[in-house]
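To fix ideas at the outset, we first show an illustrative case, written as a sequence plus integers encoding its fold:
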Amino acid sequence: ATSMGTLSKHLGISKSAIYHHVESKEEILGQALDRALDALEAVFAEVLASDSGPVVKLERILDGSVRVLVAQMPYVTLLLRLRGNSEVEEAALQRRRTLTRNLEDLVREAQELGELRTDISGKSATRLMLGMVNSIVDWYQPGRSGTVDQLAATVVTMVFAGLRA
């Protein structure tokens, strides 16, 4: 809902200067969402390509996701606020759903191997993991809420202390 006029005032440049670099607000939104999603997808791709077991992969994905969230907080926050009101938003939401399904597949694989509890729904466990990570944007303040290393370790410990078989 932000206008190009508002953006130009905030940036201290003219609207035409903005349009020199982008064609529309949607393009700006797309670039911001790509920044968040590209970083998250890189974490998933690296971890999924490894020979590690599913629990180790889950731990590494959660750790990496926390690190991406902190490093790209404004862009991840924007991603988490999407409602699918445009083609750009819907495309980003689809990419996000793919990441969620990948995580869900790992949870189910770990359950099938007896490495994670089976009395907890794999789908629910996945959503709760992501909910914990995603909530960080609402309260974490770099430099005031501990280091990113401490935060990532806390998330991984809390999730897997409750899920391990």
About this structure: Residues 87-112 form the longest helix (26 residues).
